[in-house]
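Aggregate trends can hide what the representation actually does to any particular protein. The sequence in question and its structure tokens are set out directly beneath this paragraph.
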Amino acid sequence: LDPEMWTSDDIPLSESYVDTTTLPSLGIPQDIQVCLFLIKRVKNDDDGNSLNLRTKRFCSGGGDSTSFETWSSSKFIAMGNAAGKLREECQFNDDGTMGLES
């Protein structure tokens, strides 16, 4: 994967590079709209403690210009992220349970 084609998360999607040649070259039929996003986390050079996201987008069959609902698996990723955030924010109660203060 060409490192120059990774897009920073602060670039609008409409201005991001979309690779429309790789998926068809792998045999994905052009009558099927497919988009695949690869996401990597890169340590922030400014502070060394936070992460920046970089995205590589692959589309075929016109998927790069069509809006559609993502597969349900994306919801599981969001739930996992939310659970991780709750673990960061929550503290253990005196009885050993974990929860947010109300």
Q: What stands out?
A: The longest strand covers residues 34-43. The radius of gyration is 19 Å.
